[in-house]
Design a protein that fits this description.
- The chain is α/β, with parallel strands linked by helices.
- The chain has helices at 10-19, 26-37, 51-66, 88-101, 118-125, 136-144, 161-166, 170-179, 195-204, 216-219, 235-245, 258-270, 284-296, 306-309, 329-336, 357-367, and strands at residues 41-44, 81-84, 109-112, 131-134, 155-158, 185-190, 209-212, 223-229, 251-255, 275-278, 301-305, 319-322, 346-352, 372-373.
- The chain is elongated.
- Bound molecules: adenosine monophosphate (AMP).
- Adenosine monophosphate binds at residues 21, 23-25, 28, 47-53, 313, 341-342.
Length: 434
């Protein structure tokens, strides 16, 4: 099957062709006709499946076919398609796809997210923007400033809806939904379907078509997975050893906490291994720079927390290291999904100490396979070492469903003068919504 069978415009097909895609992925095969038909969509698919093009291509087609709306009020921007994402990085990535696939069309797109000054965004919003990709918190800042008009939105996309709820965005999403026209097309993408997601879908979708794509990493055979049992205090030396021995040049390393990520970067730098961290406490500029350097191959090691890395699309990433196992087994699947994408072989290794054996068992249960264990000479675990509780882990934070509390800055600080918040990430513990 080729992309030409969908009836997408020649301009879009040309851009897809230039991108080098020859055949639509399974999610694209199912989602594109549904979106083109104008129906609402509830799609179970995670990053790495090609879902972005799955909604971007038909949206571009529909908007360009329908022509531009002329109902704009002076000084306001009538947004025609609104795409909401949980993180800034994902927003930037999605908008990059919109621009690339839409480069031969006369549609304008823009991304807005927190962590950067709001004024340049307000300036740009004065020009015509057809497709807006936004994180919820900053979008509401613009609503409050009256710099954005959502009353003409024809198509709404909630991307990675499950992660948005995990991050405490439900109230923001509901507020945004209330600002949109009742008559619109809505698409909801989520990797998982909790009761909360189902309730949200019930409220925002009208007789949706449902599609579900198998969770890729649970079956992906392009990723080789391995566990290196090691003592807690030897992990850092083992990581350095592995990087040097195998001459790894591009490694994404996962940590549970921001603090841990910063400490590891410091230690790797002392080992003369070039490393930078991305997490919620880093400025947007620092995160963008680190990611760009890493993507270009100029940075050897990128150390990330789960939320910061969610949805990152790094072409042909060869190595993912779980320096610490995640508290939530599903996050293991998300993490290793950063490698072995689109048919390219990848390697995911986990450094596991005695404290993490329960987490490892949970992961093996989820992926329904035992992971290969290999002890590295010189790093044999000491059998006398006793397990200790994991800081910020499940043992300590009862009643918390996800592992990201330690990563969330409570950074909804109000600026007195502008009323603008600095970030769109609420704390998962209590500072939910606003
Ligand atoms: P996504 O799940 O949207 O983040 O996409 C994952 C990766 O698959 C991205 O690098 C896309 O560029 C790539 N991709 C999307 N559609 C196709 C396709 N039809 N053929 C090959 N690669 C694709």
């Amino acid at each position: 099957m080729s992309f030409s069978t969908f009836g997408l415009s020649d301009e879009i097909l040309r851009a897809v062709n230039e991108r080098g895609y020859t055949e639509p992925t399974p999610i694209q095969k199912q989602a594109i006709p549904v979106v083109l038909s104008g129906a609402d969509l509830l799609a179970g698919a995670q990053t790495g499946t090609g879902k972005t093009a799955g909604f971007t291509l038909p949206i571009l087609h529909l908007l360009s076919e329908r022509g531009r709306s002329n109902t704009a009020m002076p000084g306001r921007t009538p947004i025609r398609a609104l795409i909401l994402t949980p993180t800034r990085e994902l927003a930037a990535q999605v908008e990059e796809s919109v621009r690339e696939y839409g480069k031969y069309l006369r549609l304008n797109s823009m991304t807005i997210f927190g962590g950067v000054s709001i004024n340049p965004q307000m300036q740009r919003l004065r020009s015509r923007i057809d497709i807006l990709v936004a994180t919820p918190g900053r979008l509401l800042d613009h609503v409050q400033q009256r710099s954005v008009d959502l009353s003409h939105v024809e198509i709404l996309v909630l991307d990675e809806a499950d992660r948005m709820l995990d991050m405490g965005f439900i109230r923001d999403i509901r507020r945004i939904l209330a600002l949109l026209p009742k008559k619109r097309q809505s698409l909801l993408f989520s990797a998982t379907f909790s009761e909360e997601i189902k309730t949200l879908a019930d409220g925002m979708l009208d007789h949706p078509t449902m599609i579900e794509i198998a969770r890729r990493n649970l079956t992906a055979d392009t990723v080789s997975q391995k566990v290196y049992p090691v003592d807690r205090d030897k992990k850092r030396q083992l990581l350095t050893h592995l990087i040097r021995q195998h001459r790894w040049t591009q490694v994404l390393v996962f940590m549970r906490t921001k603090h841990g990520a910063d400490r590891l970067v410091k230690q790797l730098t002392e080992d003369r291994i070039q490393a930078l961290a991305i997490h919620g406490n880093k400025s947007q500029g620092a995160r963008t720079r680190a990611l760009a350097e890493f993507k270009d191959g100029g940075l050897q090691v990128l150390v990330a927390t789960d939320i910061a890395a969610r949805g990152l699309d790094i072409n042909h990433l060869p190595h993912v290291v779980n320096f610490e196992l995640p508290n939530v087994p599903e996050d293991y699947v998300h993490r290793i999904g950063r490698t072995g994408r689109a048919g390219v072989d990848g390697e995911a290794v986990s450094l596991v100490c005695v404290d993490e054996l329960k987490l490892l068992a949970d992961i093996e249960k989820l992926i329904k396979q035992p992971l290969l264990k290999e002890i590295v000479a010189g790093f044999e675990p000491d059998p006398k070492v006793k397990a200790e509780p994991i800081p910020n882990g499940r043992q300590q934070r009862q009643g918390q469903s996800r592992s990201h509390a330690s990563e969330q800055p409570a950074s909804r600080t109000k600026h007195k003068r502008t009323g603008a918040r600095t970030d769109s990430r609420p704390s998962a513990l209590g500072n939910r919504g606003r």
